[in-house]
Amino acid sequence: MTYTPPKLLTFEQFITEYGDNPRYELIDGELRDMEPTGPHEAVSGSIAGKIYAEIFRSNLNWLIPKNCLIKPLASEATALRPDVIVLDQAELKAEPLWQKEPIICNGRTIKLVAEVVSTNWQDDYARKVEEYAFLEIPEYWIVDFRGLGGKQFIGNPKQPTFTVCQLINGAYQQQQYRLQDTITSHLLANLQLKLDDIMPL
To answer: Which positions fall inside the Putative restriction endonuclease domain (predicted)?
Structure first.
């Protein structure tokens, strides 16, 4: 039996073939199916709504685009598609692709990303922790509402977990929250949020 490695895509090929399809992202040339379900999208929408309400209340010059890709400048074949991304509007003028495509290249434009964990949880807990830290994104939220992550990431027994990664000296310090815990965001200090608030029905 022979092993056939997956066909690798360039960033440009990915944009041409899958750029408008929110189901896919590209990591090191490999196409990743994000496998969104109804509950996954409901949780993503709830998170975006909670963040946007706080942005509006605090009169911050930030926005949450409906669709957005991150193309790390150091990577030729990666296009990350966070479930929720918060952008600093003042930095958008320095983005080389933004006027033609919803693509962000500079980490300083990004205030926060949130990933809602699905069956490819390894990307959210490992690869993206490194990638987003390298981009110097101040906060990264990992929302594992089904408790899918490995035990080394969310503990044993596995349970719904909300992880806030705060960038300190170039690396993420992680704080985990379970159901009924009040979640603390250093970026959105007045945010009132519990994992219970965003769990799907």
So the answer is: 13-194
pLDDT 10s digits, 6-50 = 679 999 999 999 988 989 999 999 999 888 899 999 999 999 999
What DSSP letter does each residue of the chain carry, written as one string?
----PPPP--HHHHHHHHTT-TTEEEETTEEEE----HHHHHHHHHHHHHHHHHHHHHT-SEE--SS-EE--TT-SS-BB--SEEEEEGGGGGG-SSTTTSSEE--GGGEEEEEEE--TTHHIIIIIHHHHHHHTT-SEEEEEETT--S-HHHH-SS---EEEEEEEETTEEEEEEE-TTPBP--SSSTT---BHHHH---
- For tokens 């949880």, what's the residue? 121
- In whole angstroms, what is the distance from residue 188 CA to residue 126 CA? 24
Is residue 87 within 8 A of residue 104, CB to CB? The reply is yes
Average pLDDT, the chain: 93
Q: What is the pTM for the complete model shown?
A: 0.93
Q: For tokens 């196409």, what's the residue?
A: 31
